[in-house]
Amino acid sequence: MKTTAFACILLTVTMMVFASFLSNMKAVQAQSGYTIEHVNHEITVLYNGYVLINDTITINVTGQAPADFFIGFPYKYGQHLLRSVAHNTSGFFPLTLNVPLGDRVGFYAVKIDFNQGAPQVFSVEFVLSNSLLVQDSENATRFTLGFPAYPSLVKPAAVCNGSIVLPEDAVFVYGAPGGQTYGKENLPEFTDSPGLAAFTSSVDKVRVMDIEEFSSEIRITELGEIDCTDTYYLTNKATEALNFTDIVLPSNAFSVTSQNQLGRKMAGPTQIDQLTNRYRVTFESPVETNKSFGFSVGYILPGNYTVQRDTNSYLFNISMFQHLNYYVAQASVSFIMPEGARMVSLEDTLVGDAFSLSRDVYQETATIAKGSVISLDSFNAEILYNYNPLWLSFRPTMWVWALAIVGCTVAVAWRRPKAAVARVPSPAVVVKIGAEYLKSFVESYEEKMKIALELDSLEVRVSKGRIPRRRYKVLRKTLETRLGTLDRDLAESKDRLRAAGGKYSDLMRQLEISEAEINEAETNVKSIEARHAGGELSLEAYRKLQSDYQRRKEGAETTIKGILLRLREEIR
Fold it and tell me: What's the whole-number mean pLDDT along residues 371-380?
């Protein structure tokens, strides 16, 4: 009996060991289902100093295809990462940021999802901030770049070739671990190899700056021409003042003009590269280090961007973000249809979480917003719309009818018998705007803005329980009373400034447009907050919309500040 029991125990232990062995074998087979044959590790310095890393990877699947793939770099570069994307010729792969690299610490990694099948060749792109590019404080043409020399992988790579792509006129001085091109065979897993490159380049090829916002408004006219306005908001991060910048416009653009954020006309942009349609915009005054500046560029595109398909059917087609060699933090493109046009279909790349379509009585506008934009985000916008050419006569017809109604009214009034009344000539009204009046208006408006901020601060304080509800009500009532008085006074002042005509009338029109944009943005924010609280909006969609509305509000506030600044200049 003892021998039998011992034999059973021995048999059980043997089976457990064998099962564990098979399990480990399967794990090893699953892990060793592919080998990394080649990695092309390319480092590119973009025009505004950002660093684009492109890893093109070739794998050989020897067994079970991998469900995911891990790639990263030393963790110190993780704080500089702005964007990562994985793709091949067929499309993009889902990607998870900031995951562990195997069982090792000290690395920042991303996981690429291959649930739809692992490709043999694919690319992973990382965008790192321009703080990795250091400009010499004494010699502005000398730069030093820090970067991960090799990718960090969970498996060895048979061959890894590295290269540094510098601006076209740059002169490479020195680099580590090699020259401008370098390589390594049998690159080990979990490689931790910082790189360094020093080079010289003229400042017109590298402008260390942040392009924080870019918005393009593309208006299709009734006659098929396209009126465009591109607006930029940037911050100088270089060691010297910024006198100009280069931008990319769609091909065949003409009648190119530029103006600053206050609406003042600047020197006309000059084309410096016909192939990429690159233009140079020169500023009126230099933008100092860490200072921000906004400007807009207007241009016209020819009618060949719009093709008539049927009697009342038209197809608009344009490529966006082509030849882009700089990084843009936030970008939006709006397509404004002619009055009376109705969109029939839009190309798929336009439709997504960042897409919106707005309609008013006569006009439709499609807007697409993107964050962290590089040349990889270039897309082809195809919009099919219906438009009846009779709408060309809509405005003239309305004017004719309006004049006819006014004429008939005057004629009827003229034919009425009138009692003889002594006519007393009324003195001509002369609207004159003095410096003291402008000063009073500006100070009142600035006080209004200050009260609005105080009301926002008050809401935050009461929501966090920092002040009692009773005191909150008293303070809010006081501020709202003062705000109501200011609004009435400012409304009268606006009417007087508008009646003065000329630049004052134009400034008041811009002011009212900006105020309407702020009110609309605040209303939309409240709406999405309610929808998010009710579960109608996901957290990601809510954050995207909130960021978009906040950006619009800040843009309108910037415009208002610019208007007040112009009025202050009139006082001097």
Answer: 89
